[in-house]
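User: Please fill in residues for this 402-position structure.
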């Protein structure tokens, strides 16, 4: 049997995305999609068994349900539709994920209430759904990761009644698991690029979930800590956890739950104090086996949510010792304690206990920090081999090709 390859593409914030407000987003994403296909070496294209991709969560498209064309400018992932929030809060359960002004549902309601065009043949898709549609040609398919912020309930695997009773419910796409085969790659694309007749297109996911999948954490208790400009943790759990106070919520991954939370403590603070070069040099002199007695709470501005819900929490980075090595040690150890408390909180809220941590982001480069975290967390900590969301999307393609 010949070699089989699985193609994943990332349209997340760090992937195939350009920053410019005057851009025709639909056209730009489409151009990028086809230039990525173009980038697959010609001799490898016939070996591609399946394709999937991830997009930014809550990037929302209103399209013509006959032609697939965009009927409005896409609503970007971080766009706020405050006008729709009171309406959404009045129909959704209290503290539901959709009760945020940038949720997909707020975008849909805002469009529904403000757009005066004839809405007969319209449909809602997420960025990933629409790009995948360009490849498979069947309109109206999404996955339960992308659909979470429009209100889909992945636990009972349906849209809830409070949503289905709304007049715009008919715009909602049908939902499959991420990494489910949708259909074959469209014939014209297949022949144009030289992909195989058997090449299938699979449902995708959101960019942050794709990045988690890349780390190949697959068992309950395995987690990924991302030490980038923010500290985000994601833990595979057998139980679903939701707690709006801490901004903790769960995405479904087949028979498990991906529980996530994000702290405002951050590498962004490190970056304000030290250059990357200094971080490296100073770290060399840290003894990670010795506990630092310095207790900080590094924040860029006032307010923390997870693992401590306190909108008035003040950043704490004093006293600053004479030695920069000691100072950095104290900061790294303090962030490690926040990370440890984050995992303890998830367990207290009912999640599976963490037993191994993989690390992504700029902070994963720091081996001394990894050792400090192993001591503070009391767990094996290692750098994730793969952290690219595109790799996670390729794993979904692999799943869909089975
Ligand atoms: P982003 O979330 O912006 O994509 P990255 O994943 O690229 O961030 O990580 C950047 C962060 O990594 C910076 O804020 C910086 O403080 C941190 N960082 C870079 N090098 C080191 C290091 N050697 N030790 C600890 N942190 C580091």
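Assistant: Residues filled in for all 402 positions:
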């Amino acid at each position: 049997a010949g070699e089989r390859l699985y193609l994943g593409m990332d349209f997340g914030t760090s992937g195939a995305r350009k920053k410019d407000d005057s851009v025709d987003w639909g056209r730009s994403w489409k151009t990028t999609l086809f230039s990525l296909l173009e980038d697959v070496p010609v001799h490898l294209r016939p070996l591609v068994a399946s394709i999937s991709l991830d997009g930014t969560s809550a990037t929302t498209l209103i399209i013509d349900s006959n032609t697939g064309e965009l009927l409005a400018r896409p609503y970007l992932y971080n766009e706020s539709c405050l006008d729709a929030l009171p309406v959404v809060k009045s129909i959704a359960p209290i503290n539901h994920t959709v009760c945020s002004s940038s949720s997909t549902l707020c975008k849909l309601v805002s469009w529904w209430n403000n757009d005066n065009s004839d809405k007969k043949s319209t449909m809602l898709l997420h960025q990933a759904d629409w790009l995948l549609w360009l490849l498979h040609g069947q309109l109206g398919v999404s996955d339960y990761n992308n659909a979470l912020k429009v209100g889909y309930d992945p636990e009972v695997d349906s849209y809830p009644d409070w949503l289905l009773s709304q007049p715009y419910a008919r715009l909602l796409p049908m939902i499959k698991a991420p990494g489910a085969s949708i259909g074959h790659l469209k014939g014209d694309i297949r022949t144009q690029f030289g992909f195989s007749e058997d090449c299938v297109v699979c449902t995708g996911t959101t960019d942050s979930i794709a990045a988690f999948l890349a780390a190949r954490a697959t068992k309950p208790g395995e987690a990924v800590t991302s030490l980038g400009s923010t500290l985000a943790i994601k833990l595979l759990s057998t139980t679903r956890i939701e707690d709006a106070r801490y901004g903790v919520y769960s995405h479904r991954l087949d028979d498990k739950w991906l529980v996530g939370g994000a702290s405002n403590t951050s590498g962004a603070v490190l970056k304000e104090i030290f250059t990357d070069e200094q971080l490296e040099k100073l770290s060399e002199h840290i003894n990670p086996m010795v506990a630092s007695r310095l207790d900080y709470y590094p924040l860029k501005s006032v307010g923390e949510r997870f693992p401590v819900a306190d909108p008035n929490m003040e950043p704490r980075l004093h006293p600053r010792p004479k030695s920069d090595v000691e100072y950095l040690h104290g900061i790294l150890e303090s962030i490690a304690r926040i990370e440890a408390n984050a995992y303890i909180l998830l367990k207290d809220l009912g999640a599976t206990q963490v037993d191994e941590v993989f690390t992504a982001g700029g902070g994963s480069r720091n081996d001394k920090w990894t050792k400090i975290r192993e001591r503070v967390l009391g767990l094996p900590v290692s750098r994730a081999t793969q952290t690219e969301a595109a790799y996670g999307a390729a794993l979904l393609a692999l799943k869909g090709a089975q």
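For context: Residues 5-208+390-401 form a domain with the Nucleotidyltransferase; domain 5 fold (CATH 3.30.420.40).
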